[in-house]
Amino acid sequence: MNMRKLIIATAIGAGAMFGAVGTAVHAAEGDTSKQSVSEYASDTVITTKVKGALVADSTLSALDISVETTDGTVMLSGTVGTEAQVEQAARVARDVEGVKQVQNDIKVDPSKAEKK
Questions:
Q1: Residue 16 burial class via C-beta count within 10 angstroms: exposed 0-12, middle 13-18, buried 19 and up
Q2: pLDDT tens per residue across span 7-16
Q3: Residue 66, SS3?
Q4: How many of the other CB atoms lie within 10 Å of CB of 28?
Q5: Cα separation of 13 and 97, whole Å?
Q6: pTM surpassing 0.85?
Q7: Is the C-alpha dihedral spanning 56, 7, 70, 106 positive or negative?
Q8: Which strand (E) or helix (H) includes residue 11?
Q9: What 3-state class would DSSP assign to 67?
Q10: pLDDT band at 113 (very low <50, low <70, confident <90, very high)
């Protein structure tokens, strides 16, 4: 299970890095209508940290939760099994350094609840 989390965290980090490079290229080409490279890089770091924190939380499935960050506001979406998991995901995101606000749009799907 720990190896799976390590692989997921590595993939998330690599994706964030390539996304930041792509945005830097866009900004260098004169597209200034969006965030600056440093703002985007900062949001990318926050997104990566939130995803990593979700992976590290054994009560959550990071694969079921999407994370996007704009200007320090983290938007969570996806589906989880219980309302407690919705609340836990928001708590985890709020505890990450750099997060200014959390918009939690995660839905509950009881069919995803763990059966014990």
A1: buried
A2: 676 667 666 5
A3: strand
A4: 9
A5: 17
A6: no
A7: negative
A8: helix 2-28
A9: strand
A10: confident
